[in-house]
Amino acid sequence: MDQVGSGFSDFLQFLFMGLQRGSIYALVGMGYNIIYNSTGVINFAQGEFVVFGGLMMVTLTMTANLSIPLAFLLTVLFVTLIGVLMERFTIKPVKNPNVLRLIIITIAVSILLKGMAMCFWGKGSHYMRHFTGSDPIEVFGATLLPQTLWIIGILAVVVIGFVLFFNHTMIGKSMRACAINRDAARLAGINDRNMVMLSFALSAGIGAIAGIIITPIIQMDYTRGALLGLKGFGAAVVGGLGNSFGAVAAGMLFGIMEAMAAGYISSHYMDAVALLILLIVLFIRPSGLFGSADAARLREF
Amino acid sequence: MAQYPLLRISGLRKVFGGVIAVDDLDFDADTGSITALIGPNGAGKTTVFNMITGFLPPTDGEILFVERKIEKLPSHRVARMGVARTFQHVQVFSQMSVLENVMVGRHTRSKTGLFLSLLTPPFWRPEERRIEEKAREWLSFVGMEGIADRPAGSLPLGNQRMLEVARALAAEPKLLLLDEPASGLNARETLAMGELIGRIREMGITVLLVEHDMELVMEISDQVVVVNFGRRIAAGTPAEVQLDPDVIAAYLGE
Amino acid sequence: MERRDYIGIGVLLAMVIAVPFLVDNPYYLGVLVFTALNCLTCIGLSLLMGYAGQISLGHAAFIALGAYSSALLTTLAGWSPWAAMGAGAVISAVVAVIVGVPSLRLKGHYLAMATLGFSAIVHIVAIAAVDITGGPQGIGGIPYLSFGDLVLDTDIRFYYFSWAVVIIGLILALNLIHSRMGRGLRAIHGSEDAACAAGVHTALYKIQIFIISAVYASISGSLYASYATYIDPGPFDVMHSVLLVTMVAVGGMHRLWGAVIGAVLLSLLPEILSSFSGYFQMIGLDYSQDYDILIYGGILLAIMLFLPEGLFSGGRSLFRYLYQKFSPAEEEG
Ligand SMILES: Nc1ncnc2c1ncn2[C@@H]1O[C@H](COP(=O)(O)OP(=O)(O)OP(=O)(O)O)[C@@H](O)[C@H]1O
Ligand SMILES: [Mg+2]
Fold first, then answer.
1. Is the pTM of this model over 0.80?
2. Which atom of ligand 1 is least distant from the CA of B49?
3. Does any domain span residue C296?
4. What is the Å distance from ligand 1's center to B46 Cα?
5. Global ipTM
6. Number of domains, chain C
């Protein structure tokens, strides 16, 4: 390619791509943390929430021709409902939960959801229009899509909403109390079962948002869940499992590293970057880059 | 050359977030003695056990066992050096038989590895037979040989506590840590436990005991270390400690 | 091994010998060969799930490592298929160490995600590294295994051979669980703390078991390559790993025999389903392999919710439950 692109504008281009992907991993990672904090379980269906978000949004905007804000809202509600149903029908009925069993259950749900997505939306990938046009903006020789700005902006809104919710609402504080010490919270009169349901709802909602905002860029199909989920999980672990700000930072890091690897090395093996970072971090600093080592030693999921 | 005790704890500290669970604790346990570690609930006794056995890394301080620093070793290494323990909340392998529970206790005393295990059936392994024989011996030592084949989870608490002791003894440890061995036991069972601890000492095994039953503690201990809020507030023979004003204050509450 | 294990092996052996006299259709023999290969992988996976308490979502990738090692070393380097199988096993063991050590040193289920990622990478490499793996076209012309002059080039020969390997694999695994190490692993399951205090090196054992199970999968992959004589990336995807987990869970993950039963049942299920596809059409359902993902997902979910001990152990308790529920009612009435 003989673009005028200098080294710097290439770098900038990769950075934009990294931020955009990273935002998605950040959101998925936050989703893992919410459920992890309330149940101690890693939800393997997290990636499927993203897929359902994306595909539902495609149907509502491209087929049903709803306006983007309305479709956005309906999609998030729809996927949140899936999260709630998942908790009520597959997690709550388990009498003596052990972590291995719960994890296998979430694996089973994830492939069921994947199968359903295939039945409803077929095997092809789905195009969706960008929120506000796809004319790129030029920044120092690199191009920036308006959708990228939407993605980063929405991540910011979600993070702020997250902080407000967990620090300033009764429900949010109760959820945090449950995460810290479930028995004590129960003694204080908090219904921890409802908290678990709520965590699935929230986590599914956040997953849906991730799917909605990324679909215009990657074109969603039913197989995407596993890899998106894996990278989000990587972000959650590298950020320190249970620590949502850590997940956001690590998600961004993942996205950027991945984009750089794709740009400077080879796009084929881009997906290996996430696993590589995950393994290295597990090996040298299992508490994550932003977690406390002492807490992680005792932590199990 | 200075003569070291079997176990020497010096300057031991453990901080959990904001909670100081153990604060600058020192004590020694001499070979063949029974040392009791007592104190009110939450005083940090179990935390001390967890640090000695490698379950928790100390924030600060030293643990010398047979003149080696062990505070940084993982629990299986500490076990191999000859430290065995029981748990405050009984931890038997409930799906396994009583005998198998004690056989697990022989773990550090046997060594068949991965390849031999794969390639030879159990009846070809002389070691397997020895493990079973020894396990049966230790079961009869605690008087449980009659129920060797029962699943451990089906036993009453008293038997489960005895089983934990048998499992720990099966490792033939130099140092045995007992965390509230009599809690939840009735008077008769408590008596039997006290008698058992006495027999353990006679075998030359050093015992470190955490227990709330003061009668038991005062009767069998050589040395009592009293902790409150993670700090040592008194130490000495049972008679000395009982008269210590600080101890009386801590127990009656200030 | 206990007496009933020997009885079980005797029964299995008798069935393996008898079946070809009942079915001599080569297609069904082929299905039974694939069943054997799944059995072998599942025995290893059951050691991991039932005894080390860990899940792998990457066993299909270890099968792929075995299969591609066999394929490449025999076709490109001219190795004997046996040596290639051994090399595949070594490679799988090394990869298991790389993936397993970081994830298994810790408590928790990091392994599931790490193997998922590893599996994705293997799949990508198999497709993208066209120069080596042949990409989506795959590799053909893989030589048959042979014992001297006896070449395993017919279905019936490979059938007996593959089931012999399964039985050997089963015996070795049974030896392992009835050993000091197996006891240590079961102890971890009962109380990890007490096991550690008794000197069980939990992390090391988990890693060793993971390596063993990876080697089982790898050998099953090598066998697959030399039976099919052609491989492509298709069968080695994450879905196959999930299917293997399902087999183990359906049979019952805390019993090695459960893995055998689960693998047999689920390997035969697609055949059973497609033989019923006529009936499905009559009630307006168009069965195709595409729906397998829903079927397996549904089975896995149902087993974990209602029969977490699996068919092998759960079947007995279920029977007892139904018996109590229905028979006394009649007596009372
Ligand atoms: N893993 C842990 N994480 C955080 N705090 C802990 C942990 N273990 C113990 N603590 C705290 O350390 C303090 C000492 O606890 P410890 O269990 O050692 O007391 P104890 O003397 O054994 O009490 P008891 O007689 O009730 O068994 C307590 O305040 C406890 O809440
Ligand atoms: Mg205690």
1. yes
2. 18
3. no
4. 7
5. 0.91
6. 1
